[in-house]
Fold this protein.
Amino acid sequence: MNTIIKVSNLTKEYKGLKAVNDLSFEVYEGEILGLLGPNGSGKSTTINCILSLLTFSKGSITVFGEEMKPSAYNIKEKIGVVFQEVSVFDELTVYENIDYFCGLYVKDKKKRAEYVEDSIALVALEDFKKFYPKQLSGGLLRRLNIACGIAHKPKVIIFDEPTVAVDPQSRNNILDGIRRLRDDGATIIYTTHYMEEVEILCDRVIILDKGSIIAAGTIDELKALAHIEEKVSVHMGKPDESLFTLLKSDKNVEAVSYDDGVLKITYVKDENNLVGLIDTLKEQKVSYSKVYSERPTLNDVFLELTGKDLRD
Ligand SMILES: Nc1ncnc2c1ncn2[C@@H]1O[C@H](COP(=O)(O)OP(=O)(O)OP(=O)(O)O)[C@@H](O)[C@H]1O
Ligand SMILES: [Mg+2]
């Protein structure tokens, strides 16, 4: 695997607060690497260090094998960035905004016109080319922000929480677009605090908490860290203590709880748990309305490693 970005022992402090603490990771060519972490975990700080927009106390960063510096324009022109805050010009239309940002890198007018159209198509803004940013909904504005960041067809693209506060349609459009950019050969860093997005989008994930990496790997590798294998929910009336005792006597059951009309059972192994459970419920003459099973999520991994929810 070709390493495109290498971050080694990166530490960034703000007056004694380690916003990023001894971070080391690599980004491989053609992958979508997810940086997943709650608010304040250091995602934006990491990205801003990679882009040389922030100085840092310790560590080193290379991009395409070269040391990243504020003056490394040859590297910077190969990187597209979509910042967390929307940054477009209010006085320019959708088309003019994208054309402006693309024009910073692509001087050839014919090629630029093609690139601008490509990026408009990628985020499906065809019907809004003549609109001004103030006339766009939040989701459309985010899509414009993305088009501005990627129009020059950079080899590396960094997205900092591009789907915060967008409607589901725009979210799907954005995630689809990012996948297409990867399929066209871009290498992508995607930061978010939404584990669902990471699960459907990213090839590999780094989980951050308080500036440190707490886990890294593919989705399957990470899920293997959560020692539970299955979670079953049963919608039913309040069970008797005896049912709790019976269920807990199974060595494969890690925990049983009842809350808000739902009995939840977590299993440490995947062993036809659902079939066994339904048999038990029948034997005990327990009536229920709905039963469903879930695999562990990245939240379970986070919970296991930090003792708290990703969404605290
Ligand atoms: N300019 C700054 N001065 C002081 N502290 C800062 C500054 N920027 C960030 N921090 C602190 O550094 C830590 C990491 O912040 P950062 O913005 O990188 O987190 P994040 O993971 O991007 O969070 P979010 O999901 O809210 O965007 C936080 O504790 C934050 O308060
Ligand atoms: Mg951030």
Notes: The chain has a mean pLDDT of 93. The pocket of adenosine-5'-triphosphate (ligand 1) is lined by residues 14, 17, 19, 37, 39-45, 84, 193 (CB under 6 Å). The chain is about 35% helix and 30% strand. Residues 3-223 form a domain with the Rossmann fold fold (CATH 3.40.50.300).
